[in-house]
Amino acid sequence: MPLRFAVRVGLALVAAGIIAASAAPAPAADMQAAKKEGEVMWYSSLSLSVAQKVCKQFNDKKTGITCVLHRDGSGKIYQRYLQEAKGNVFKADVIHTSNIGHFVNMKKNHLRPYKPKGTEKFIPAFTTPDGSWNILRASVYVLAYNTKLVKPEDAPKSWADVLNPRWKGLIAHAHPAYSGVITVGMLSLVNMHGWAYYDKLAALQPKIVQSAVAVIPLVARGEAHVVAGTAAYNTFGDIKKGEPIKMVLPKEGVAFISSPHSVLKKAPHPNAAEVFTDFLFSQEAQQTLVENGLHVGHPGVKYPEGLPSLQGLKIIDFTPEEVQKKSKEIQEMFRKKFGV
């Protein structure tokens, strides 16, 4: 099912409360074999604090399997894995990034299909028919601003508003080569406004940081006034901490950023990889993700107050193949236009 269709179907089912089983449950992971392996190496682009929390939850269960986390940006996670694989070095058991194009590229040679326990009841947009990957978490691409430095009436209400000359030198933007969130978000804006949008943005001399997570603290400290695109979950988390930040859902629409997870074909701990994957898609772990501002496929989670519902939003979504095809162009054009 193409993602653009599955998102809408999935959200409709959620709204109607009629998520139903779409496939037979997968065979259970072999816990005894997993215990003998002893650990699972998780390559993940999930923000460090949330990834550590999830890893700790798993380790606190004392299953005899230890979650070992390697956290980095989507681009670096992907490149590290490919470099290791090229040298016939396989450390990672499971991999998770926010660029679904990575998984299209890896599907044939690097991913092992696995359907986590219970995902037959998930929102269809968060699963794949063959289990090559499943969507661990999703968010939308939003604007944000510092409430102490920007009046509500002056704040940008649309993506086009960011190009107002008043924001020259006051915009924060992350790098798509590091961040899968930014790659997909930029793709939505290029499709909407063309590359001329980024020519105009570059002329405003934005402050470029590495990750989508890093833009919010920059604005919270007042080093910039406006975030020209980040994930809603980053923004939600900082607002919860009391930072002077306001999230804006631009009227033209928001990109739907799906972040897949997969078991790796050459995983050194294949059974532990399955046990850990089952945990990631359990209601317990999915609820933790939700409480940190993310959207998930589990039908049993309860969303916190203040997190924007996907229902009613103008969602801009892409097939995995679209993201795969355009990612390199997005990253190269960004370097060219912004000189970084």
TrEMBL record:
Organism field: Tectimicrobiota bacterium
Entry's transmembrane regions: none
Residues binding Fe cation, per UniProt: 233
A Pfam family this chain is assigned to: SBP_bac_6
Signal peptide (from-to): 1-28
Keywords: Iron, Metal-binding, Signal
InterPro entries membership: Ferric-bd
The protein's name in its UniProt record: Extracellular solute-binding protein
PANTHER family in alphabetical order: SLL0237 PROTEIN, THIAMINE-BINDING PERIPLASMIC PROTEIN-RELATED
GO MF terms, alphabetically ordered: metal ion binding
